[in-house]
Amino acid sequence: MKTSPRKPRAITISQISKAADVSPSAVSALLNDRDYGIRISEKTRARIMKACRELNYRPKNPAALARIYPSMGDICFLINSGVPGGVHHHYFGQMLSGAVASLEDPTSHIAYSLFDPEIDYVNHPESLPQSLRSGSATQIIAASTPNTSFVQAILKRNIPFVYLGHHMDEVGLCSIVPDYAEATRQSVRYLAQLGHRRIAYLTGPFGDSTYNLLELQRGYVEGLRDCGFPISPQYIYHCDFDQGNFGQDQLIEATKHLISLKERPSAIMCFHDTAATVVASYLQSVGLRIPEDISIMGCNDEPSASTYHPPLSTVHFPLSEMGARAVKELENQILFGRLDKPVNISLPVSIVERQSCGPCPSPSGV
């Protein structure tokens, strides 16, 4: 009489703790507690996970399974809770759409959550989004203005992590950005080809160290140098802004200042399309024609840029491609392990020619 083969004996917490050389309570906390061992050290966490994989431990709890085998977990797309409209914002919605469209496994999906810009997540990991605390999300894509403590808290969990739109020098983090500096370099070259020499630039607050603003201004300065044009501080204007209205009052004051100059710029570049439409609206309100009297160049290719009157010339950022590339980089981190240095990937940008830029109104650049 034949007997059925015995089922393999279930792996126990005691076996895992012995293999990892840690206490059973540490294993239990990491695999079974509500908050999945958020206060367990990085080294202990790594030893437990390594032991689980070597023993081929397969817990019944889906979240615990995902923590041990990250490829089985969800991707979580996170943005700053201060972003107007959240994921419905054009900029971040396109990133998320690109990431979703790139998923090859039909059983995979991407969850969406928010992080708070003010919380210290390193000292308060219990405030992390639920999908991270439970362990169901094991691959992270984040975007928007970063909270440094949030980034550090994610990195401590040693899971695949990609940040979109901002570059940070953090070991284990992959950043994917548009080539911001090339965006403004291309804009200066484009305007120079139209005969402009006095090209102004409106940017964010003075002293702001945000990566994208610094890179955009660097590209503007390098573009002028490449064209052999002087760097004129009077043509660089810093504007304080908030997320609600992009500092309309300051943008208008900046525009008044620029057109009052004895050598008025013949073109104004703006760090964002929304700012460009504010500037263009004011110029038209005081009787200046766009582009016959002055050219306006935006940046970021917002949907409204094509419907503005006149349609706004701008720079297209590869937002969908950034989302798709983020999914690919998560897969690479699962296959090849945690990054041992910061990685910054820049994707190409492109000029979008519309009707807000035209030939310089006089050979002198006025």
Automatic annotation (TrEMBL):
It comes from Puniceicoccus vermicola. GO terms for molecular function: DNA-binding transcription factor activity; transcription cis-regulatory region binding. Keywords: DNA-binding, Transcription, Transcription regulation. CDD domains: HTH_LacI, PBP1_LacI_sugar_binding-like. It comes from the Bacteria. This is LacI family DNA-binding transcriptional regulator. Residues 11-67 form the HTH lacI-type domain. The keyword Chloroplast does not apply. It holds the Pfam family Peripla_BP_3. Gene3D superfamilies: 3.40.50.2300, lambda repressor-like DNA-binding domains.
